[in-house]
Amino acid sequence: MRIIGGSFKGKSFKFKIPKQIRPTSDFVREAIFDTLQNIISLDRINVLDLFAGTGMLGIEALSRGASFCQFVDKTKSAINIISSNISSLPIKNENYRITFADVFAFLRTYESEIKFELIFSDPPYGQALNSKLLGSNLIFKVARSGTIFVFESSPREILNENERIKLLRAKDYGDTSIYFFKFVE
Length: 185
Description:
By secondary structure, the protein is an alpha/beta fold. It has helices at residues 26-36, 56-63, 76-87, 103-109, 129-136, and strands at 46-50, 68-73, 96-100, 116-121, 143-153, 165-173, 176-183. Helix content is 25%, strand content 27%. β6 (165-173) and β7 (176-183) form a beta hairpin. The relative contact order is 0.17.
């Protein structure tokens, strides 16, 4: 895996990926960030990377100018991979936080003043976790008006708009669907 763009462009990571982690491919990550550049400026924004896995979505955002990224995952192997990847880059400790927690528990107990302008959610496929996340409304308490949500899912999981979000774009890449929503509270 490698960083596609920004100040860390070209940096490669080599790590053994446990079977419970399904990383976003370089191709799909590049497509996500190509789309994002037409939707939001990444310069000095706060990013939340839920179901972070390898952390590559959040790391890519930091490489492209985000000032802070909160990584959340409930698997120890994912936390170890994210920590290893971050430590190999010149990123200051105040520019990220890695939390070992269930995403829903994290959102229920979140009390920081930091709100996020960009939120990634890339849960395991086949469990409808993105639909559950949107249905719970927990994700909205960490967002501000105008926040962009990027949801990665199986094409079999259909994500629908609700009164609080507007679908901006959706695209399928083989066995991966990417949804871009905007928080319109």
